[in-house]
Every structure is written in C-alpha cells, then in structure tokens.
Write a structure and sequence with these properties.
286 residues; alpha/beta; TIM Barrel; 8-stranded parallel β-barrel; 11 helices; 8 strands
C-alpha cells in the first residue's frame, strides 16, 4: 500500500484511543523485522531513523531512508517514515526529499528559551515542507549513554502548564514528554506517572509521545495509552532481541561464514518482538 503519513496515523490512533507503535531502524534487518512484525500484528507502524543511526551509516541518510521507504510502501499495513532525535538542522532539511513525512527535532538539552526559539524555527521549516514535527519537553534520560535521570531531578518530569505554553510558542505537532521512562533501558522496570500523563493530555492540544518505551512493562504501556499517550517509541527492545539471537546462532554455527545463516534468526527475533509490542501498544485488532 502507499507510504503512509505519520500525521494521519497519529490522528487515527488518537481518535480511536489507541497507541501508535514506532520502532527504531539501525540496519536493513531492523526495517524488515519491523514491517514483518507489524503485518503479523495487523497494526499501523512508524519506522524511525535517528540522527545516531545516520551517523552510524557514515552520515549518509538516503541509502537507509530509500530502503525503508520501499519496505514501508510494500508493507501490508499502513507504515510511515520518521526522522528521530534530529539536532542538526541540515539533517532536518534533508528529510522531505528523503521520503520522511515527520521528524522529531530535539532541542531538549538547551535552556528553555533557546529550546523554544530553535524548535519554533524547526517547526516553521517543517511546515513549509509538509513535515509533521515532534519535539521534546522535559528530559528523558539515557540518551547517548548518559545515566537515567533520578525521578525528582529538575526537568525529569514535564510540567503541563509549561508544555501547553511550549506547544503554543513553537507550533509543534506532537510532544514527547518526560513521565518516568528512560532511553536505552535493557530491563523493563520503569514506572510511569499516569496522573501526570492524564494532566498533560488535558493541557496539550497535540498528540503525546513516549520515548524510552523499551524499559516500560506491558501493563504500564497499556495504562499510559489509556491515560493519553499516543505515539510509543521503541528501540532498545529490538536490539535486546537481536543480539542474543545472533550470539546463539553464532555459537550453534561456529564455522559459519555466510552472514545470512546467523542474521536470519536474529531478524526473526526482532520481528517477534515487534509483533508482541505492537499488539500491546495498539490494543486488540479492530
């Protein structure tokens, strides 16, 4: 089916009070697993390429983006392409021509006034070029190996009134909020602040996004969607499925030299993870 637009998938999920699963792509195997897993779950999906993933591929956006575009367009469920955690405006400017319908501009590490200014400029560019723009307010820890923020550290929670002002001042189309999750968690032990999620959903007129969802248990994800979160970003969970499966395959085939023999089970493990988590996020098939 034709490549979907993130804005349309978000609007539909919000109207149905369902979550929209969004999975991070690092390799072609990730993208293939995401599409296969979403098809098995019967849920729409967003394929996300982060600025870090682009850097991993030598700073070249187009090869991976083109592959994801083709896979998403061939997917049997609606699939969209999103450019995630962009800090470089030049990379954001490359997004429209590369097939992305949305991007997340990350100025969350800047002082608040500078964050608002930079994000408003990014939103203005995005809207001139047909991009749906997501931003982040509050600090979702764990990025680039930094430790998770303590629960009560300054900025570790997004304030609803500040979030409403931020959306009004920047013009963003979706807002990632800090409600208790952390990037790069390999154990599912995070506890979310569900009353805060509900307060944010009531205060903010755009869809809310959860980053760092890999460390959030199933029941917490279900409750978070019910409280008002819409787009649920998942990355590390794919890697924690991929890497052990790859290690096992290598141990079982110590003489193997054909990478397909060991990458295939690792890709399948990721697809199974996508299917399970997509069903948790999106709920039972309509």
């Amino acid at each position: 089916m034709p490549l979907a637009r993130t804005a349309d998938l978000l609007a539909r999920a919000a109207a149905d009070r369902r979550g929209l699963p969004a999975f991070n792509v690092i390799t072609l195997e990730h993208a293939e697993a995401i599409c296969a897993g979403a098809e098995a779950a019967g849920t729409p999906v967003v394929l996300q390429i982060s600025q870090n993933a682009v850097a991993y591929h030598g700073g070249r956006l187009l090869p991976l983006a083109r592959a994801c575009t083709e896979l998403a367009a061939a997917c049997a469920v609606p699939a969209a392409l999103h450019l995630d955690h962009v800090e470089d405006m030049e990379l954001l400017r490359a997004a429209p021509a590369a097939g992305f319908s949305s991007a997340m501009f990350d100025a969350s590490a800047l002082p608040h006034a500078e964050n608002v200014k930079a994000t408003a400029e990014a939103a203005a560019f995005a809207h001139r070029h047909g991009l749906h723009l997501e931003a982040e307010l509050g600090r979702v820890g764990g990025k680039d190996g930094e430790p998770p923020l303590p629960a009560h550290a300054p900025g570790a929670r997004t304030d609803p009134a500040e979030a409403a002002d931020y959306v009004a001042g920047t013009g963003v189309d979706a807002l990632a909020v800090a409600v208790g999750s952390s990037h790069a968690m390999t154990t599912r032990t995070a506890t979310l602040d569900h009353p805060l999620i509900a307060a944010l959903a009531a205060a903010v007129p755009v869809p809310l996004v959860l980053h760092g969802s890999s460390g959030v248990p199933d029941a917490e994800l279900t409750a978070a969607v019910a409280a008002g979160l819409v787009k649920i970003n998942i990355g590390t969970a794919l890697n924690t499925a991929f890497t052990p499966a790859l290690r096992t395959a290598l141990a079982e085939r110590p003489d193997a030299v054909d990478p397909r023999k060991v990458l295939s089970p690792a890709r399948s493990a990721m697809a199974d993870t996508v299917t399970r988590l997509a069903r948790v996020v999106a709920g039972p098939a309509a």
